[in-house]
Design goal:
This protein has 609 residues and is an alpha/beta fold. It contains 18 helices and 26 strands. The strands form five sheets. The chain has an eight-stranded antiparallel beta sheet. Strands 5-6-7-8-12-13 form a six-stranded antiparallel beta sheet, covered by helices on one side. The chain is globular, with a radius of gyration of 26 Å. The model has no long low-confidence stretch (mean pLDDT 94). The structure holds 6-O-phosphono-alpha-D-glucopyranose.
């Protein structure tokens, strides 16, 4: 989605802004632009549809200024072209604005401005902000931006430059992330930490309804009515190198291989071997609260939704509490019934996915309790929730989620353990699960070692225009996630089905051009699964089976990938079986020379509806 960067200090702004925009590329975008300000030359803007490198290639030679703002745009109002790219300026070319989010009353404001004789040049909602700031007569830039914001309804993270106030950037946040980076005699701002960490790890997370002024000397924060908020800066304990792909050809590859350590981090200090349960201080729920939960409802989008389905099964199995997952993007549109004894769980890597955030707000509006399984500390969803489990996966840059998803699964296992142990899950079963979780990191390491074996199969799959991923019960959400990964990074059509449902429709599509990837765990359904695979084989459909060492497949499959690790607990099958599917999608995309980390049309965190 759209990204924002800004800089004020002693260095030339343009190269820093371009570098920062490059670091936001993974968020997904279709055009980019920057504006710089110098006391002698005034405001200059360069913007272009396409990649940051296209903008860089066409930058005018003289583009000097030690203060500036930049943006990557993901088109919402109007097509992706040079004119609609940000920054947007007012008629006199004095004010420049970059904006993330959506202005709901843009149409009315556009009509009002046009009526007042203002010529709007773009199709965007953002342009109105530049004109509103320019038309304000307040004494200060802060006053002008505040006045403009008073007219706006919607969500925003924004940054404003004004030629009449050349020492400052004024920024504001409402529903769209904005982080200030505090440097030495220089200040940065960005919508994502990825664009800041190379310069500073001392940051200020702005709250909703908050504004800030950045000058080379420092920052001040205040509310939109200009009353000071004095928000303090925090030194983050993060390694800037985690935002670099290092020796890997892509972040996706790096992040897949980081899964064993991510699992260790999400488990650290949380397993209780003695009582076969987990410690989750951040849940803010005691045994009595947990006991009062009659139902669990999980909400997330994309991969977070699929892992939510895996989590719901875990909770039902271990705690025997009815649980299900729903796409957060649908939830609030069906006037959901929110019950006081249901525990709602929002799952999100970024903590900024607007559909998930709005679902949490709907739950709160109706008096429900919602906890979060969130990776990004201090993100909007984490703050909105009543408690939760931080995932500690580390920064995830690739659009396709891998390590965050794995930590989400572990988060659900920890939650299921606790919900189970305050009910009928025996101490022996609790201990069994605790031991299984302790082995998980090592097991993942072994599954990842299958990579070389997978390359050929991945190449073959990459040649199919369309394919199925099938699984049953525990294997079904795995199939859904496998199909999702493949679609995202290869642009091939992949559809997930319950193996048991094949004969009720999709079997009609099976022929030698349509492969099926089947998930067949060694469990009570293995024989039935194999039976269904014969129906595929009988129709000439190529079959790739992901399974355990002891499942007898006869000669039904064309390719069999066995995750050859000592059998862990069945409850942990889904996550161990998901990892080979990540590798398959990755190698298929690599073979097709796709832009693996930045698939077309997709964004890392979707901050607009
Ligand atoms: C986008 C990404 C998906 C991701 C989903 C949820 O659609 O492309 O990969 O799973 O958002 O993101 P979240 O940050 O809420 O987990």
């Amino acid at each position: 989605m759209c990204g924002i960067v800004g800089y004020v200090g002693g260095q030339q702004a343009a190269p820093l802004l371009l570098e920062g925009l490059g670091r936001l590329e993974h968020r997904g975008y279709d055009s980019a632009g920057i504006a710089v300000l110098s006391t002698s030359k005034g405001l200059k803007v360069a913007k272009k549809a396409g990649r940051v490198r296209d903008l860089e290639a066409e930058m005018p030679k003289r583009f000097s200024g030690k203060i500036g703002i930049g943006h990557t745009r993901w088109a919402t109002h109007g097509p992706a072209n040079d004119v609609n790219a940000h920054p947007h300026v007012d008629a006199a070319g004095e004010v420049a604005v970059v904006h993330n989010g959506i202005i709901d009353n843009a149409a009315a404001l556009r009509a009002e401005l046009t009526g007042a004789g203002v010529e709007l040049v773009s199709d965007t909602d953002t342009e109105v902000i530049a004109h509103l700031v320019a038309r304000s007569t307040a004494d200060t830039l802060e006053g002008r931006v505040s006045e403009a914001l008073g007219r706006i309804e919607g969500t925003y993270g924004l940054a404003v430059l004004h030629a009449g106030f050349p020492d400052r950037i004024v920024v504001a946040r409402n529903g769209s992330p904005l982080i200030i980076g505090v440097g030495d005699k220089e200040m940065h701002v960005a919508s994502d930490l990825a664009a800041l960490v190379r310069y500073t790890t001392t940051v200020v997370h702005l709250g909703d309804g908050e504004m800030a002024t950045l000058t080379a000397g420092g920052y001040t924060t205040y509310r939109e009515d200009l009353v000071a908020t004095d928000r303090a800066a925090k030194k983050l304990d993060i390694d800037p190198a985690s935002y670099d792909a290092g020796d890997h050809d892509s972040f996706m590859h790096k992040e897949m291989l980081e899964q064993p350590e991510a699992v260790e981090r999400v488990l650290r200090g949380r397993l209780d071997e003695r009582f076969g349960t987990s410690h989750l201080g951040g849940l803010n729920m005691d045994a009595r609260d947990l006991r009062a939960v009659r139902r669990v409802k999980i909400l997330g989008c994309g991969s977070a939704y699929y892992v939510g389905q895996m989590g719901a099964q875990l909770i039902e199995e271990l705690a025997r509490v009815p649980a299900d997952a729903e796409a957060a993007s649908e939830f609030r549109y069906r006037n959901p019934i929110v019950e006081p004894d249901t525990l709602y769980v929002a799952v999100s890597q970024s903590g900024e996915t607007v559909d998930t955030l709005l679902a949490v707000q709907e739950i709160h509006r109706k008096g429900g309790r919602c906890i979060g399984l969130v990776n990004v500390v201090g993100s909007a969803i984490a703050r909105e929730c009543d408690g939760g489990i931080y995932l500690h996966a580390g920064p995830e840059v690739a659009v396709a989620s891998t390590k965050a998803l794995t930590t989400m699964y572990v988060g659900f296992a920890l939650l299921a353990l606790q919900l189970g142990r305050v009910r009928d899950l025996s101490i022996a079963d609790g201990k069994r699960l605790v031991a299984g979780l302790q082995r998980l990191s090592g097991d993942l390491e072994k599954v990842l070692a299958l990579e070389d074996e997978l390359v050929d199969v991945a190449k073959r799959l990459s040649q199919a225009e369309s394919m199925f991923f099938v699984g049953r019960v525990r294997g079904y959400p795995v199939a859904r996630e496998g199909a999702q990964k493949l679609k995202e990074v290869t642009y091939r059509h992949a559809e997930a089905y319950q193996t048991s449902e094949l004969k009720h429709g999709p079997l009609a599509l099976i022929d030698k051009t349509v492969p099926t990837v089947a998930i067949v765990p060694e469990d009570e359904l293995a024989d039935r699964n194999v039976g269904a695979l014969h129906e595929i084989a009988a129709r000439g459909g190529p079959l790739v089976v992901i399974t355990h060492p002891n499942v007898d497949l006869g000669d039904v499959a064309d390719r069999v990938l066995r995750i050859d690790v000592p059998r862990n607990e069945v409850e942990l099958d889904p996550i161990l079986l998901t990892v080979p599917l990540q590798l398959l999608a990755y190698h298929a995309a690599l073979h097709l020379e796709r832009d693996i980390d930045k698939p077309r049309n997709l964004a890392k965190s979707v901050t607009v509806e």
